[in-house]
Structures are given as C-alpha cells and as structure tokens.
Design brief:
The protein is of the alpha+beta class and 127 residues long. 17% of the residues lie in helices and 43% in strands. The chain is built from two helices and nine strands. The protein has helices spanning 2-18, 37-40; strands at residues 28-32, 49-53, 58-65, 69-76, 79-86, 95-102, 109-114, 117-118, 123-126. A hairpin with a 2-residue loop joins strand 4 and strand 5. The mean pLDDT is 86.
C-alpha cells in the first residue's frame, strides 16, 4: 500500500498543476526617451492624447504637454487605469511624452486621468 502512495500523490499533484490558470501579468508603463521610427511615423501632433497599439498586449500612449509628466498604472477589475500628473512649470511648446504600456489581454477598458480628472483619448491607431 505504501509503495503506491507516493506515485498516486505525485500524479494527483501533477494533474492539479496542469489545470491551474496562469498568473495574471501586472501591467507596466515606461516612458520612452528614444522614440522608434515605427511609432514616430504614427504620432499626430494636433492630438493631445493618442493611443497606438500593435496587438492586445503592447500599447503606446502619446501625450503632448507643456509641463513635466509623471505616469503610473493600476488595475481595477477589467480596467487598466493610467494616471498622469502634470507639473505646474510650463514650457513654450508642448512636448510629446511617449509611454510603452504592457498589459494582459483580460484588461479590456483603458481609463485615463490627468491630475485626477478623467480625460478622453483623442485618437486610437492600430500600427
């Protein structure tokens, strides 16, 4: 009886591990200091906020601002929530801030807040 216990226990643990769902990938946001050409060619300067995407995982968010910008990302159920904080110092010309965003495909809604105020995305472009 003891000879069968270890193989049976191993089999049960192995089968239980096969059925488990993968852990969700936490979203991350990173400012790009060098903008690749394939992204640069899709940026439209007249739109303040633009979302570019290649697939349902990789996104690029472009924001034109006269102040310095800090970004953070969070998850709320099936929503990806992006918070931008604009600094109070103002430059003469609005500068593009480009962020690479990696998220899981389960996050189907993107919410954007600038200084705590909900903002719409002006343009979405598939690359």
């Amino acid at each position: 009886m003891k000879k069968w216990m270890l193989p049976v226990l191993f089999y049960v643990l192995w089968m239980g591990g096969c059925d488990s769902a993968p852990l969700p990938v936490p979203p991350k946001i990173q400012e790009l200091t060098i903008i690749p050409d394939h992204i640069q060619q899709h940026i439209i300067a007249k739109d303040r906020i633009q979302l570019l995407y290649e697939d349902d995982v990789t996104y690029y968010l472009v924001m034109f601002s006269k102040g310095n910008v800090l970004a953070s990302v969070a998850v709320n159920e099936d929503r990806l929530v992006i918070h931008f904080k604009e600094g109070s110092e103002q430059k003469k010309e609005a500068q593009p801030y480009v962020y690479a965003i990696n998220k899981s495909p389960e996050l189907t809604i993107i919410e954007l807040y600038i200084n705590g105020k909900s903002m719409p995305i002006d343009r979405m472009t598939m690359m």
